[in-house]
Amino acid sequence: MDEDVIFKLKDYDYKRYGLKALFGADLNEIRSGPGNPLQFSVFRLAVCIPKPCTTQEAISELLFNISSIGFQYEDDFCRLPNDKPWVPADYTAIGLFFFIGFLCIMSTCYEINHIFILKSDPKSANALYRSFSVYSNTSRLLNFSTRPGALECLDGIRALAMIWILIGHSFSSQSFTYNPLESLRWMISLEALWVTAGHIAVDTFFMLSGLLVVYTTAGKLTSVGLLKNIHFFYLNRLLRMFPVLATTALLEASLFNHVSDGPVWDTVISQAHRCRTFWWSTLLHIQNYVNSRNICIGATWYLAIDTQLHILSPIILVWVLSGNKGIAWIALTAGVVTSITAATIYNFINEFPTGMISAMQGPKILDYIVYYYMNTLTRAPPFFVGMMFGYLLHIWRGKRLEIATALNLILWALSLSLLALAMYCIHPTMQIDWNNQTVDSLINSFMRPAWALGLGWVIFACVHGYGGPINWFLSLRLWKLPARLSYAMYILHFSLMVIVNSSSIAPIYFSVPYIMFLFCAYFALSMIIALIITIFIDMPFSTLFKMLLDKGR
């Protein structure tokens, strides 16, 4: 047997026992748990063999005699020459993108001719003809002028939450490393808290979504107006999300499969097959319940939950818009209390672990992802907390609020304490000796609403002039562009990470500086692709949808 192969097998055996000691998971649990982050820590070997040979023949003849050492293996994936044929989804994508490109060229030429050649007033240009203009859409995207009543600090919060998610996925997506034990030891250390706590960044978006659905609606509609226009309320939300989501689903099902290749490209191929089969559950925003183990675009579980919560929100909004503050507060409080109570009961019944890297909990990780992490019931509390702060901002809109210095300091201390506690509480549960299901259930029930509550005060204080340097930092113009691109970046970024990682021809050596270097690359790539899709697809179709909805009213 080749000495290098013997060395690699012995090294793998050492790491396998190390994983068992560190996480209480044996090899079979790791291999059979598709939701387990340790599943990629098994020994994987990619070899090129003659087509007539079987895998057993190739390994026995070319490497070593399998039967002599009792070596067991699974034939995971077989690739053949030219095994990525062009399918109808590919031709559909090419044709559609060429057509949109043609519309953008024609629309841009029309607007440039109207403004620069005919010297006409830009406002007199036909809105339909200029809807696909790259010139006007780019100008709108890069126009950072302040609007009256805008919540400027939200740009910084949205951008930083997106950056935090990207950092977390930069670490978690590195499946193949030379030193998996070292990476896992670092991930459960206190030093990694700023990464492992990143899962609550998504709750920031849930909180902001609930806040904005009240803040934007309360200034425009009454209860009667909401009920009369409920179809427009839903259509506006669904159509606003559709262009980027549909574009990414089409790219996943088609062109992304052809941009590169590599020894682990089967990940991208599998993703393409999922999108070709289950695209409809993604576009209907039900993939967190339907085909939840075969999601087309990994990050869109959040979008499904957010859309479902928007569909439910009029149950409370109709009382909030009634004009009676007492009834509004009762409805909002009932929403928060009911959501937290229901989530708490559900969590205690199902006994989930508190995270995707959890000692002695390997077999439960997939259930945690499907039945807790992607469940509307368990992720709803931050949304309803956000609705409360949205109403609080609405009733104080345009008014001067006087808060005593001592009270302001106390509220800031409580807010920062809640944020710090929400970040830290998951750390003890990742340790080897942790075994307290009651605390696990309490953390799963109250960590996310606590984060939303702490964040709510930060927003309220910043809007009313009590944010100091924090408000200055969050309101910097620096955050405006990434905040506007955050939706497209969120939908696209993980797919781009999978493509880059699946193109690797060798494992990487895990180190924090190197992963942060990769994060910078992922961030730049995601931002560039998001910019292109936003200008060429999202903004034009959003304009068309707005024109259609305005005519319908």
Structural notes for this entry:
With 553 residues, this protein is mostly helical. The relative contact order is 0.14. 66% of the residues lie in helices and 0% in strands. The chain has helices spanning 3-23, 27-32, 55-63, 66-69, 88-117, 134-141, 153-172, 180-187, 193-196, 201-218, 223-228, 230-253, 266-283, 301-312, 314-320, 325-350, 365-373, 376-379, 381-395, 405-424, 437-463, 468-474, 480-484, 486-502, 512-552. It has 25 helices and no strands. The protein has 3 domains: 3-69, no CATH class; 88-141, no CATH class; 153-552, no CATH class. It comes from Parnassius mnemosyne.
Task: Provide a count of the helices.
Answer: 25
What is the N-to-C succession of helices and strands?
Answer: HHHHHHHHHHHHHHHHHHHHHHHHH
What structural category arises from helix and sheet content? mainly alpha
Largest sheet: none
How big a fraction of the residues is strand? under 5%
Tell me the number of structural domains.
3
> What is the CA-based Rg, rounded?
26 Å
The span between the termini is: 77 Å
Contiguous low-pLDDT stretches (5 residues minimum) are 21-40
Mean pLDDT over all positions: 88
How helix-rich are the residues, as a percent range?
55-70%
Shape: globular
Number of strands: 0
Protein name: Acyltransferase 3 domain-containing protein
Organism: Parnassius mnemosyne
Transmembrane segments: 91-110, 192-217, 238-256, 299-320, 327-349, 369-393, 405-430, 450-475, 487-509, 515-537
Domain Acyltransferase: 153-530
